[in-house]
Design goal:
The complex is a heterodimer of chains A (about 190) and B (about 220). Chain A is α/β, with parallel strands linked by helices. Helix content of chain A is about 30%, strand content about 15%. In chain A, a hairpin with a 4-residue loop joins strand 3 and strand 4. In chain B, strand 3 and strand 4 form a beta hairpin. The chains are: A alpha/beta (about 190), B alpha/beta (about 220). At the A-B interface, helix 1, strand 1, strand 2 and helix 3 of A face helix 1, strand 1, strand 2, strand 5 and helix 6 of B.
């Protein structure tokens, strides 16, 4: 209780036959205990704030004319990201200069720098940074988290156009070549 | 030496004010919150800086655990009931009793192939990580169908029918994918392909706010 007995209660009136005036004060301590117990319960079992949602628009599939509609894209507008295993991220521009750089998600500022640098280049050549086209190619060994991370970076950089593309055989050859340092081994993959 | 008499002060503290505060807070929490829906599996969502909150209602939630098992759920109970009816016409050889149907309506989310649904509703199978998940691949289904696609389609049709009949207030059901960050990408891709196949080209990825996700987070951020 919130009261410690001081030992002198009623000491002066001992023996007196006067009728006692009962105090109207109610000890609120148990009620406070109960109140906070309930608060704790509600805080723990309720969703305090809802999770956020990230919009993802994927192109509709058309079975009839699959490859025919694929537009040709200028390589000078492109920046490509390959999501690798173990949160690794590789980026390169086009097939001709395969310089695969590995950057890590752990420093997401790096991704931002790569995107910003590429945007600047594209803006210099094409006049507007909105011309940038970002390709995302997740490898089979990558995790869903990596995809969300890179999509998040796309949203932060406000890239207008990006595409999620399957990681292809030629990509994997190119990656291997770039990692082992034999840049000419992938000529077959050009176009 | 004269005795110094220390006046004994009462240690009684008036708890009334504190009680007021406690119940005020309690009222606040009760009014502003809603119960967390029971989830069959624990999902460790990846973080993002997306600030848009997920819609309040009319949500079809595809929960994907870190093994890639898919759990399907719709928040509106009427839509659930109607979806089950539609699914039963797709898979006529699975029979449901009335009790099982009633139980299904209360089920927030589940992850079993259609032929196992009756036993799940009879509590013979656990609806958690040990559940097999909804087949996304026709090879995993007894009926050689992509059952997730059927559920997604049936759910959207059910929502649409009920909306036209004005039994529910809805402006189209939102599809949200709540995946565990550690899920392999190919498994997620299969699910996204399924959605695109069913003409759901726009959907939400449910994420936690950045910071709660430790594995991919390091020196980044502002």
């Amino acid at each position: 209780m919130a009261e410690i007995s001081t030992g002198d209660s009623g000491g002066k009136h001992k023996g007196g036959k006067r009728s006692k005036k009962l105090s109207t004060r109610v000890d609120m301590t148990p009620m406070v205990d109960l109140g906070f117990l309930l608060i704790t319960f509600f805080v723990l079992v309720t969703t305090f704030n809802k999770p956020s949602a990230m919009d993802l628009n994927l192109p509709a599939k058309d079975d009839d004319k699959e490859k025919e509609d694929t537009p040709e894209i200028k390589q000078s507008k492109v920046v490509q990201f390959i999501l690798g295993p173990e949160n690794k991220l590789y980026h390169f521009v086009g097939i001709e200069d395969i310089k695969v750089d590995s950057i890590d998600f752990s420093a997401s500022r790096n991704v931002r720098e790569v995107i910003a640098a590429r945007e600047k280049e594209v803006a210099r050549q094409w006049g507007s940074r909105d011309s940038v086209l970002l390709f995302i190619k997740p490898m089979y060994a990558s995790k869903y988290r990596n995809m969300v991370d890179i999509l998040d970076e796309v949203n932060i950089a406000q890239i207008k156009r990006f595409a999620l593309i399957d990681f292809s055989e030629s990509d994997s050859l190119m990656m291997q070549a770039a990692i082992t340092g034999q840049p000419q081994a992938t000529e077959a993959t050009n176009q | 030496m004269p005795k110094v008499k220390i006046p004994r002060k009462s240690t009684l503290v008036d708890m009334t004010a504190m009680c007021d505060v406690a119940f005020l807070l309690l009222t606040f929490f009760i009014l502003t919150s809603k119960f967390r829906p029971q989830e069959p599996v624990q999902i460790n969502m990846p973080g993002s800086r997306a600030e848009r909150k997920i819609a309040e209602q009319n949500i079809m939630m595809l929960t994907v655990n870190n093994d890639g098992k898919v759990f399907w759920g719709v928040d509106n109970q009427k839509v659930r009931a109607r979806t089950l009816e539609r699914m039963m016409t797709n898979y006529p050889d699975v029979q449901f009793t009335e009790e099982q149907k009633a139980k299904f309506v209360t089920l927030e989310s589940f992850g079993v192939p259609f032929h196992m649904l009756p036993s799940l509703l009879d509590d013979k199978i656990k609806n958690d990580d040990s559940a097999p998940g909804i087949p996304v691949d026709s090879s995993a289904s007894r009926y050689n169908r992509n059952e997730l696609a059927d559920w997604v389609f049936a759910g959207r049709v059910a929502d649409n029918e009920l909306r036209i009949a004005q039994e529910i207030e809805s402006d189209g059901i939102d599809v949200a994918v709540k995946g565990d960050g550690a899920t392999d990408y190919p498994k997620m891709k299969k699910i996204m392909d399924t959605l695109v196949d069913k003409k759901v080209n726009k959907f939400n990825l449910v994420t936690a706010l950045k910071g709660g996700d430790s594995a991919a987070e390091g020196g980044g951020g502002e």
